[in-house]
Automatic annotation (TrEMBL):
InterPro entries: MCPsignal_dom (IPR004089). It holds the Pfam family MCPsignal. This is Methyl-accepting transducer domain-containing protein. Residues 5-69, 249-293 form a coiled coil. GO terms for biological process: signal transduction. Keywords: Coiled coil, Transducer. It comes from the Bacteria. Residues 76-309 form the Methyl-accepting transducer domain. It comes from Candidatus Cellulosilyticum pullistercoris.
Length: 355
């Protein structure tokens, strides 16, 4: 009969999966088993084997579920890889489109840069012309001031001439009065000479000559008065024209100063515009550099992310495939084990009417 030690050895082999050897030993000792007297021990072993067999369906179902789950995981990984591949393709297209848009922006920025350079040259030319205008206006202003000073001097000279003419006219008036008195005295002398008769003839001739001289002097004085009056009138008109000219020159001087101030303001505005354009040019260059840096960074992040994701999913797929292979192998092993247990379960023990 089987000893206790043999029973323990059989259980060890069963637990360690040495079913082939155990089945062979059972086949070789079949007759001994039929003659064994320790039926209770064999029944206990058989009950244990039956319990294992009863768990077969549960184990098979569990293995099938695990296999299904692993297949689903594998399919999920494959779908994710395909999705990432599609996403990678889409991102590549978007990246190319973004590159094209960025290149268009850079090209436009370069055009703006060229336009800014052209505007800067034009502004520099405008500033140079404004400086020339300032110089010309300064010359004109200086000339206008000199003309104004000359006009003021002419005005003063004309006023002096008018005053002198008025004084001369006054003196001529006095001389004319003297000539009239002389003429009156000559007339009286002629009358007295006529009264004197033959003795006063010589005196009468002198008186007549004096009267003629007085009349000629008076006539000359009248002509001089008319001439001085005309000169005074012309001088007054000249004075008015000089005053009008001085006022016009003063207005011109004010306009020249106003134009000069406007030119200075325009120059300052132009210089300020030049500074703003230079800042815009710097901003455009910064934008170009930022676009290039962002493009490089986006490509690097995209490559790293997609590479890591694809590598991770490929590794996951490989691990799932390996695990699935192991599960299939284990399932086959357990199926074989169950078949061997079924073979053991076919042996009947003498004295057990229930079997």
């Amino acid at each position: 009969m089987f000893e206790k030690k043999q029973h323990i050895e059989m259980m060890r082999k069963l637990a360690e999966g040495e079913l082939d050897q155990l089945v062979e030993e059972i086949k070789q000792s079949k007759k001994a088993l039929l003659k064994v007297e320790t039926v209770e021990e064999l029944l206990a072993i058989k009950a244990h084997i039956k319990a294992v067999i009863e768990k077969r369906s549960k184990l098979s179902n569990s293995l099938e579920k695990i296999e299904q789950q692993m297949n689903l995981s594998k399919e999920f990984a494959e779908r994710q890889i395909a999705s990432l591949e599609h996403m990678k393709f889409t991102l590549v297209e978007e990246s190319e489109a973004r590159k094209i848009r960025n290149q268009e922006i850079i090209n436009r920025a370069m055009q703006v840069d060229k336009l800014i350079v052209t505007m800067d040259d034009q502004i520099k030319g405008s500033v140079a012309k404004m400086e020339e205008i300032e110089s010309v206006l300064a010359t004109i202003s200086s000339a206008v001031k000199e003309i104004n000073a000359t006009a003021q001097s002419m005005k003063n000279q004309v006023n002096t001439f008018v005053e002198t003419a008025q004084n001369v006219a006054s003196n001529i008036t006095g001389i004319s009065s003297i000539a009239e008195q002389t003429n009156l005295l000559a007339l009286n002398a002629s009358i007295e000479a006529a009264r004197a008769g033959e003795a006063g003839k010589g005196f009468a001739v002198v008186a007549e000559e004096i009267r003629k001289l007085s009349d000629g002097t008076k006539e000359l004085l009248d002509n001089m008065i008319q001439l001085l009056t005309a000169l005074e009138s012309a001088s007054l008109k000249t004075n008015e024209e000089v005053n009008a000219t001085a006022l016009g020159i003063e207005k011109v001087d004010n306009k020249v100063e106003e134009v000069g101030d406007n030119v200075k303001e325009s120059k300052q505005s132009t210089l300020s515009l030049q500074e703003q354009i230079e800042k815009i040019n710097n901003y455009v260059k910064d934008i170009e550099e930022e676009i290039q840096l962002n493009e490089q960074g986006a490509e690097k992040v995209h490559d790293n992310l997609m590479g890591y994701s694809l590598e991770y999913l490929a590794q996951l797929k490989e691990e799932v495939t390996g695990a699935l292979t192991e599960i299939v192998a284990s399932s086959q092993y357990y199926e074989e084990t169950i078949k061997q247990l079924d073979m053991i379960n076919q042996y009947k023990v003498l004295g057990n009417s229930k079997q």
